[in-house]
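Backbone-to-sequence.
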């Protein structure tokens, strides 16, 4: 049985999308695991000019794991992503996400753009939903050597007006995706 990991992101200029794709590559590299790339709409727009389909509540409910990504907006997750989470009360009431593994990722235009606080704000709804939140352990060598993005809270990218990820950022994102997929597969097998 296939393990499905939703990689849910909001991206305005492409940096967070680039991280999402690397996380998805990591997920897809694990046997019997597949990544489902999804995004959220702008709050004041009904059109879809996004690279990936919009997430549905049912897709979130039925996933086996979740990677959640947002650019750092004043040290917080972007409003469109927060708006989506504000609509997940029915999942919370039913406990649909309890014990599912999750991780977070972010991008900012500067090194001190609020990456870690953004990652922490994204963790809050996940914790309230009872999800098992994971980061990147220091056993990952690139976490020690990266001079741009990458935190123990999750994958990250410093764009400085460039959406291209560094090799360290790409590797850390892929490793986070692999770790999430392995945990999702393991937890799914235990519950079945």
């Amino acid at each position: 049985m296939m393990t499905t990991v939703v990689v849910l992101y909001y991206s305005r200029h492409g940096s967070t999308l680039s991280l999402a794709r690397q996380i998805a590559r990591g997920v897809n590299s694990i046997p019997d695991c597949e990544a489902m790339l999804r995004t959220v709409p702008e709050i004041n727009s009904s059109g879809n000019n996004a690279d990936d389909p919009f997430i549905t509540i049912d897709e979130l409910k039925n996933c086996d794991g979740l990677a959640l990504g947002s650019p750092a907006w004043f040290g917080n997750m972007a409003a469109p992503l927060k708006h989506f989470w504000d609509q997940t009360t029915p999942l919370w009431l039913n406990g649909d996400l309890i014990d599912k593994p999750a991780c977070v990722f972010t991008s900012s235009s500067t090194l001190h753009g609020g990456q870690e606080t953004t990652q922490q704000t994204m963790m809050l709804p996940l914790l309230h939903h009872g999800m098992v939140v994971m980061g990147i352990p220091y056993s990952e060598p690139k976490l020690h050597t990266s001079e741009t993005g990458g935190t123990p809270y999750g994958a990250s990218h410093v764009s400085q007006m460039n959406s291209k990820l560094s090799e360290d950022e790409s590797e850390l994102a892929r490793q986070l995706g692999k770790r999430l997929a392995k945990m999702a597969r393991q937890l799914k097998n235990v519950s079945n």
